[in-house]
């Protein structure tokens, strides 16, 4: 009986002490430097393509050690620029046909899940909100730690189906008779976030 009691006490000591050995670490937040970070876009149509930039407004990335655990960023949609400096195109992209920036000046992305990829790549799933509509998207991103203690997260080709956000202008899926004026439903984003503690 004494031996059994001693065994139970020892077992309880092991269980309670092991509960304190591995504390849950809170993720460390890195603030996105919007001056060093970039967001570019490419939109394609049957007869060619357009590309340009959009400014990041703010953002943060959370890390458990060197592993990406979460994050978010906001995009200033009123800053859409065309690489060819076409004021007409920029105005149309800001109009209701496309992003309606008078009413929806900001788009956001919030990470919901990060899965391991190969090498320094992870698969990021999150909620992208454009024109007040939110959809889940998944894309690969590369994480690189820099000599100055900052971190760079890069996603070279994020495909976004604009029709899921109510942007249907000249979509062949929505307007089959649009002919050679068709604009592809998917547009591409290339995202580079530089963040530091």
**Radius of gyration, CA atoms, in whole angstroms:** 23 Å
Q: Give the DSSP E fraction (strand runs of 2 or more residues).
A: over 45%
Mean pLDDT: 89
- How widely separated are the two ends? 57 Å
Which runs of at least 5 residues are low in confidence (pLDDT < 50)?
A: none
Helix content: 10-25%
Structural class: mainly beta
At CATH's second level, what is the architecture? Beta Barrel
Order of SSEs: HEEEEHEEEEE
Any idea how many domains? 1
Report the principal-axis shape.
elongated
Q: Using the coordinates above, name the CATH class.
A: Mainly Beta
Q: CATH topology, which one?
A: Lipocalin
Number of strands: 9
Main beta-sheet strand count, sense and barrel state: 9 strands, antiparallel
**The CATH H-level homologous superfamily:** Lipid/polyisoprenoid-binding, YceI-like
Q: How many separate helices?
A: 2
Describe the protein in words.
It is built from 2 helices and 9 strands. The chain is 14% helix and 53% strand. It has one domain: Lipocalin (Beta Barrel). Strands 1, 2, 3, 4, 5, 6, 7, 8 and 9 form a 9-stranded antiparallel β-sheet that branches. The mean pLDDT is 89. With 197 residues, the chain is mainly beta. Strand 6 and strand 7 form a beta hairpin. It starts with a helix and ends with a strand. It is elongated.
């Amino acid at each position: 009986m004494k031996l059994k009691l001693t065994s139970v006490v020892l077992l309880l000591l092991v269980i309670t002490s092991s509960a304190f050995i591995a504390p849950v670490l809170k993720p460390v937040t890195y603030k996105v430097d919007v001056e060093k970070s970039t967001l570019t876009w490419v939109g394609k149509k049957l007869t060619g393509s357009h590309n340009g930039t959009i400014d990041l407004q703010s953002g943060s990335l959370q890390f458990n050690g060197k592993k990406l655990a979460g994050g978010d960023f906001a995009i200033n949609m009123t800053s859409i620029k065309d690489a060819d400096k076409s004021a007409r195109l920029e105005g149309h992209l800001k109009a209701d046909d496309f992003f309606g920036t008078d009413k929806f000046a900001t788009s956001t992305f919030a990470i919901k899940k990060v899965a391991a990829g190969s090498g320094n790549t992870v698969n990021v799933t999150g909620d992208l909100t454009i024109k007040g509509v939110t959809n889940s998207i998944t894309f690969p991103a590369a994480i690189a730690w820099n000599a100055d203690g900052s971190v760079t997260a890069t996603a070279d080709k994020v495909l976004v189906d604009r029709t899921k956000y109510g942007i249907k202008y000249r979509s062949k899926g929505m307007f089959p008779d649009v002919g050679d004026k068709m604009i592809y439903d998917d547009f591409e984003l290339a995202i580079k976030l530089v963040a530091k503690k």
